[in-house]
């Protein structure tokens, strides 16, 4: 029934401003509408996304499907407002929260994706990780953590960007033509909603940028040294802004057209805000496909020494300070339940059957399940780990295995909490939780039992949408952050029911199971990682050899038979042929040396001393002095001055930057690049001199004809 004003009644009779939220997750896309300063959803609509797995361990998404789903969900959600007494005009602002680390490359002028989006849990970049590790001292995966807070891992966006440039021809071509755009999903969404090729905003926020491995946690901007290391040019990256400010308006002729966008948060940081964990020492855990535990450290950056990440929690305004968090990421949580359903066929419906079947037994029967399907994330960071189920007996049933899968999520959470206690020095007194898996009461009780502190479950399973609604509403002036901080969040509380001894005994066996999961993916390291094509057996042998003429340390036993002597010479010959790279002369030199050596003495064959590897890592003054103005991406310079660029190509700029090499003591040395291009004058060199430098038979006929005309002499 309509009231006197002709409008339908709204809850308590007070009509509030509305905040819309685009929530892009790993599996679904949602559009949610909140009333300002209310934590309950007013209305929403969601669609499932297609999963693309072209190879084992690869995970891709269709970028265009994401955009189309957003528009469809928004249209359906807005269409429900009339029944609730609202209209589209009541939506004053939009917030965007998204899956992090998922990476997209697209064309600046056409707006077309150059490759499917590489999802956050994709592990195709193993070889890229090896190539990057080969450039850092001691191949230390934690070498960059002081700059970006992250270990070198396939998890993060910079590795995915590097892989795309190395392996996708369309991406390389776009980079060469200065039309390549890289971004996480938030950047892709905003660029499309605000005009796309017709002036779309090319931006991201600090929380998403902090997951790329390219942002400096101190400056909150792209770090020139890291960009140089990964070969990603600044022009291919969006501008980094705060998490809460008015960025622009939607301009895509959809139902959202004309609405402001004023909030961006990565989904896990958004859940931290939604859970009201906005004071140092508070933490939340989100249980989805993966599991993500964030511990608020306030304005202080805590650099973990126990396998955790340092990330930006939020920055609520351009002039506000950034707040940081330490994070533990678990690759497989809800994914383990999906594995039991789809691969082992142990359950039918995850949400209904998991709790019921696991609850039919009182323990796992000493069964432990480590779901390391694509390696282990925090705090282990072992990409060679693989999933195992151990402790099976003749009495084990599917009930025990399903319960062990639930406990695996809880044990992994305890792994992270143990590391957080060591890094932060302040143990948690309670843990806030959200996510779809929290609807499982058995899981929540197991979690409280295995970590020994109360678990507080939010009334809404998805706090990510609420968190960015708060940030966007705050920027638009319809949601008070201070009021929100003072509010007590409503939650269901689960208290521990086990003893410390029982809890610790089970955790000890879990650690034993984790140790057994390590080292299964023993793939051969790449050439970039090892610096050699195969085991350098020749070099090891020659360490024991003496120069010709020495009888003292001969490798041949003078008492051996002629047959054994010949076998040893043949073995040396095979090693020499296999290890051509360490010998200074040609193969025939070694062959003749062995063939005509009549003495049973060791043979001295010189080999090259490996040169120091060139790397580009260190906070050298050159890189630290780089500014946004140097890349034409700043806000202070006049637009007219920023448009023209004198770069021949992006690759030329990257290669013209000085490199950093390390001496034997790991001290950085600046090295100016040397140009390999040599301008030849064929008339001065003559055809004979030129023939020494070029394989004539490999030249195309047309090139030989052109060169002959210039040199006045035939190349043949």
Quick structural gist:
The chain is α+β, with helices and mostly antiparallel strands.
- Overall strand count: 26
Secondary-structure class: alpha+beta
Q: Beta fraction of the residues?
A: 15-25%
CATH fold-type name of the domain at 285-464 and 483-517 = Nucleotidyltransferase, domain 5
Largest sheet features: 7 strands, mixed
Shape: globular
Mean residue pLDDT = 77
End-to-end separation in angstroms reads: 96 Å
Task: Supply the CATH architecture of the domain at 285-464 and 483-517.
Answer: 2-Layer Sandwich
CATH class categorisation of the domain at 285-464 and 483-517: Alpha Beta
Task: Supply the CATH superfamily name of the domain at 285-464 and 483-517.
Answer: ATPase, nucleotide binding domain
Unreliable segments of 5+ consecutive residues: 1-9, 525-563, 576-587, 593-605, 611-622, 642-650, 675-694
Proportion of residues in helical segments: 25-40%
For the biggest β-sheet, the strand order reads 17-18-16-15-21-22-23
Q: What radius of gyration results from the CA coordinates?
A: 31 Å
Number of helices: 25
Task: Provide a descriptive summary of the structure in words.
The protein is α+β, with helices and mostly antiparallel strands and 716 residues long. Among the domains are: 215 residues, Nucleotidyltransferase, domain 5 (2-Layer Sandwich), CATH 3.30.420.40; 64 residues, no CATH class; 58 residues, no CATH class; 30 residues, no CATH class. It has 25 helices and 26 strands. It has a 7-stranded mixed β-sheet with strand order 17-18-16-15-21-22-23. A hairpin with a 5-residue loop joins strand 2 and strand 3. Helix 4 crosses helix 5, helix 10 runs antiparallel to helix 12 and helix 12 crosses helix 13. The N terminus is likely disordered.
